[in-house]
Design brief:
heterodimer; A: mainly alpha; Cytochrome C3; three-stranded antiparallel β-sheet; B: Cytochrome C3; globular
Chain lengths: 226, 142
């Protein structure tokens, strides 16, 4: 309540400031040269803060060649010898996020076969096909953790026991931890696919039962006006 | 002594900076990042070298994560491995491959040291970096 009052008062005060500045502006303009101060005042007429997207960040060219990356130094000769990602990605299955390459499909479809051993290109990974389902309290689909895709790339020791105790349900995981770079977020959001609207259902892939509905919060159950 | 040369240098940088500044205003800052590139700059800047840019995408085309992160002992943390040239020529970290046997050898300094001076150690395009606000704190978290 009091918050609304405050923002209302604030809005009135702002309008008053804006209109006095308009008056001040027109008063000075008769004096000849346009002063910097006047420009400042005039621009205060309408807030320039109302651009359409304030916080949206979009990737214009996610796979720019190194000299245009923004962190490679174009003054460095080596930078221009580095390979542009797009050149290497031709023919690989695509996604709409991360490197814009579907690395799992690329291996499944035999388009890529990265080495499992540093020297021996014929060595095969030890792939384990075991799905772990984690029920999620929220309305989003439950999480299925697939060992298969992970053991295509990683050794058991990359996750067990440092990141996850190898026992179903023994690990506390939530989205906050993941976004902070813990648990699944050690890799996802950094090197493996990122956490964005387009990837939620990659992890949250098991639909809730037909009769499922989100539990009501205490505040609702005890709401005297309900 | 090098007063003149230094001056023109500074001007060049100032102009470059201005151009870069205009660019930054025109584009969102993350517009052109290749996801998962790691910039490593624990020591490089201080020693007068450009920071190192390590491209994950390029290496994962050739190797599974296991090769580096299990066999070679790279920890999952940008800058966390305290890599130095002494360790590299000893055959550790990058030096396990960039030795003229598996990949081109270590004398190609500017292939690795290709970052813009002053760039801090970080992993590019990460979800944490792109968040508008810090992640939420769960109500029941202690």
């Amino acid at each position: 309540m009091s918050q609304y009052m405050k923002s209302f008062v604030g809005a009135v005060a702002l309008t008053m400031v804006a209109s006095t500045s308009a008056v001040a502006g027109s008063g000075v303009s008769g004096a000849g040269a346009v002063s910097a101060a006047q420009l400042l005042w005039m621009s205060a007429d309408v807030s320039s803060a109302n651009i359409f997207n304030r916080n949206l960040k979009k990737e214009k060219d996610p796979n720019a060649p190194p000299p245009e990356s923004g962190y490679h130094d174009p003054e460095n000769d080596g930078t221009h010898i580095l390979q542009p990602p797009k050149e290497a990605y031709v023919g690989l299955p695509t996604t709409e996020f991360g490197n814009h390459v579907d690395w799992v499909k690329a291996i499944d479809q035999d388009k890529l076969s990265p080495r499992w051993d540093r020297f021996d290109s014929s060595e095969e990974p030890f792939v384990m096909d075991l799905d772990i389902v984690r029920e999620v309290k929220a309305s989003v689909p439950d999480v299925v953790f697939p060992h298969r895709q992970h053991t295509e790339w990683l050794a058991c020791a990359n996750c067990h026991p440092a990141i996850f105790v190898p026992q179903k349900g023994a690990n506390q995981i939530n989205m906050s931890a993941i976004l902070l770079g813990q648990k699944c977020g050690v890799c996802h959001g950094k090197v493996s696919f990122p956490i964005t609207t387009k990837t939620c259902t990659k992890c949250h892939s098991k639909p809730k039962p037909e009769d499922w509905s989100p539990p009501l919060s205490d505040a609702t159950l005890k709401n005297p006006w309900r | 002594m090098f007063c003149n040369a230094e001056h023109s240098f500074k001007w060049k940088y100032a102009l470059l900076g201005l151009l870069a500044g205009m660019f930054v205003f025109a584009l969102p800052p993350t517009a052109k990042a290749e996801y998962a590139d790691v910039i490593i700059n624990n020591y490089a800047d201080a020693a007068g070298m450009r920071p190192v840019v390590f491209p994950h995408w390029f290496h994962r085309v050739r190797f599974r994560c296991k090769v580096c992160h299990a066999d070679l002992g790279f920890q999952f943390k940008a800058g966390g491995n305290k890599i130095t040239m002494a360790k590299i020529i000893d055959g550790k970290f990058c030096g396990a491959c960039h030795n003229g046997e598996i990949a081109w050898s270590v004398e190609n300094c500017n292939m690795c040291h290709s970052g813009i001076p002053g760039t801090p150690t970080h992993i590019h395009g990460s979800t944490v970096q792109r968040l508008v606000a810090p992640p939420y704190k769960a109500l029941n978290s202690k």
